[in-house]
Structure formats: structure tokens, C-alpha cells
Design goal:
Elements: H1 11-30, H2 38-45, H3 49-54, H4 59-77, H5 83-93, H6 97-109, H7 117-136, H8 141-160, H9 166-179
């Protein structure tokens, strides 16, 4: 009886996948509102569109990995243990409209439990809520949910109207939530 041994990805394949992800993340960071096409990512890596998808399984899997890589970069760049670090991160996002659009698109697609973004968006939401709760302190769970929901909504509004002041509006909401009478959750 013959047994097959499944090998893991080759070092060359791992490096190629990392290169594609780096190119795609850079393309989304520097693109306009609509993000890059799969063809432009493929061209920049010297592959066909099918060649790019070979390393990720599907375009949606690639896009989820782009968002995950951006989250990791932001966590390494910004001090997300403070509210000021959170404001800096949000200000940064207005310089990357392609990534905002991608996040909104993947968040909408994640409402389908079978979509590749579903688990990512669920995990990301839990992580961001936990981060906001740590920044705000104990007893501010509801306020953390409201700030996160407002951040999502303001990013969407900003895509439609770039004059939307995401950071300014969220700072005002933060102040109102934490200083208003009877709003602190128990």
C-alpha cells in the first residue's frame, strides 16, 4: 500500500505569495477610491490573474489577506493602547481610500456566513471592540460599540463625501459619550 505524504508550501511559493500580498497591499494603499484591479496586481507581479489566484484560492481570499496585512501593519505602526493612537490611525485611513473601500466591501460581503471575509470581519470586530474597551476603561462596553459603529459609518460617508471629518466627528462623539449624564454602562 502506498501512502502519500502531503508537503507544505515550498519556500519559493511562500515568498511568491508574500510578494503578491505586498504588491496588492501597496496597490490598495496608493489607489484611489475604487482600488486596483486584479489585473493590475497580476501585472505588477509578473503573473496572470489566474497565477495570482493560484496562491490565494480566490480573489476574496486575497482581499481578506490584504486587510489582515494592513491591520498588522497598523498595529505595529500606531500606539493602539491610547485614544490618541486610535485617532492617528483613523486620520491615516483617510489617506488610503482604496483600503477603506475594500474594508467596507468586505464587511458587507461578510454578512454571508459562507463568504471568506465572514470569519475575518467577526474576529476584527471582536478585536476592535476589545481594543476600544481597553482604551475607554472598564464599564464602557456600550460606548465602545457605539464608537466602532460610528467609525464604520463615518468611513462609508467619507467615501461618498471626502469633506466628512471622521476624526473630528468621532472625537466629538467620544467626548459626548464619556461626559454625558447617564450614558456610562454598568
Amino acid at each position: 500500500m502506498e501512502t502519500s505524504t502531503r508537503r507544505g508550501p515550498s519556500p519559493k511559493g511562500v515568498a511568491r505569495r508574500a510578494e503578491i500580498l505586498r504588491v496588492a497591499l501597496d496597490a490598495y494603499r496608493t489607489s484611489g477610491r475604487y482600488g486596483p484591479s486584479l489585473k493590475s496586481i497580476a501585472d505588477a507581479t509578473g503573473l496572470s490573474e489566474a497565477g495570482v489566484l493560484h496562491y490565494f484560492g480566490s480573489k476574496d481570499e486575497l482581499l481578506v489577506q490584504v486587510l489582515a496585512a494592513d491591520d498588522a501593519r497598523c498595529a505595529a505602526t500606531y500606539d493602539l493602547t491610547t485614544i490618541d493612537g486610535f485617532w492617528e490611525l483613523l486620520a491615516h485611513t483617510t489617506r488610503t481610500p482604496g483600503l477603506i473601500r475594500l474594508l467596507i466591501d468586505m464587511t458587507a460581503a461578510a454578512t454571508d456566513p459562507g463568504h471568506p471575509a465572514h470569519a475575518f470581519v467577526d474576529r476584527r470586530t471582536r478585536d476592535w471592540l476589545a481594543l476600544m474597551e481597553r482604551i475607554l476603561g472598564p464599564g464602557y462596553d456600550w460606548e465602545a460599540q457605539v464608537l466602532l459603529a460610528a467609525a464604520d459609518g463615518l468611513r462609508f460617508q467619507w467615501l461618498r463625501d471626502p469633506s466628512t471629518d471622521i476624526v473630528g466627528d468621532l472625537r466629538s462623539l467620544h467626548t459626548a459619550l464619556l461626559s454625558g449624564p447617564g450614558v456610562r454602562s454598568s
